[in-house]
């Protein structure tokens, strides 16, 4: 099995302006969703009904004109942090102050790429990623600047991170150097990072996303050999493997959101790459088991999801014929 890096969670090998239009797919659970499609980087949504739309925002001037914004985390309407990369300039970050985006200096090497970020307040964020040399990258934001942390292992690319507090974060990923390597999960306790033991016999594959509703309730999703979905859960003490309700043909789970410990929604696609010929792959966790949900009757794949409640979720991705790399709703 060749390793698969999910577009939208890694900037390796991608070049292009930070804001690029693409054919997009948005799906909502219980409630009106956005009526128009726009790209993820540098876009804002205003309003609460199906009549409102996304509007493109000017992106900050990075050190290089080419690049991508891969992840964002907002704690209020006046604070967001976005992360990505700017071509040969390496990793880049930008902060939203309620009025405009401002670039924030990042102590980056030329090959560094940031894939995801999670903030608990304007004074604490964690950004994760890696480099083209497959070196693990973790950094923390203290409200004034970024500090690169020392991960407990190297040789991995971290694709997702979720923090429930400044002393409780979980970061997940995998490695592209070997097709026989297990997924990676790193835990932050407020003082240092430590590698978590993979449950049972380590599964060959990657974890692409993670969502924590508390320090003792995190769910991570990804894929294992044969592109079968992979779901792991952290209970504050150890990781456990959860049984995914795989669709016919298998498929990776590329996004997950858990508004509380008993409710999660995970999304992905059926198959291994575009063009998509089946509807998106959506699973729900009810505190006891995972089950496949009925998805929109359109060929496509979903890359990310966000839930404010068990019955209020929005997922984004791309439709048949498009490539994954920019998503929006």
Structural summary, described in words:
By secondary structure, this protein is an all-beta fold. Helix content is 0%, strand content 48%. The chain is built from no helices and 25 strands. The chain has a four-stranded antiparallel sheet, with no helix packed on it. The model is unreliable at 1-24, 31-43, 45-50 and 322-329 (pLDDT under 50).
State the main characteristics.
about 325 residues, mainly beta, 4-stranded antiparallel sheet, about 50% strand, globular, disordered N terminus
The biggest beta sheet reads: 4 strands, antiparallel
Question: What is the beta-strand fraction?
Answer: over 45%
Distance between the termini: 32 Å
Alpha plus pi helix count = 0
Mean pLDDT over the full residue set: 79
Shape: globular
* Spatial extent as radius of gyration: 18 Å
The total strand number stands at: 25
How do you describe this structure in short?
With 329 residues, the chain is mainly β. The chain is built from no helices and 25 strands. It has strands at 25-29, 43-45, 54-56, 68-76, 79-85, 91-96, 101-104, 112-121, 124-131, 136-141, 146-148, 157-165, 168-174, 184-188, 193-195, 205-214, 217-224, 228-234, 239-242, 253-260, 263-268, 281-285, 290-292, 300-309, 312-319.
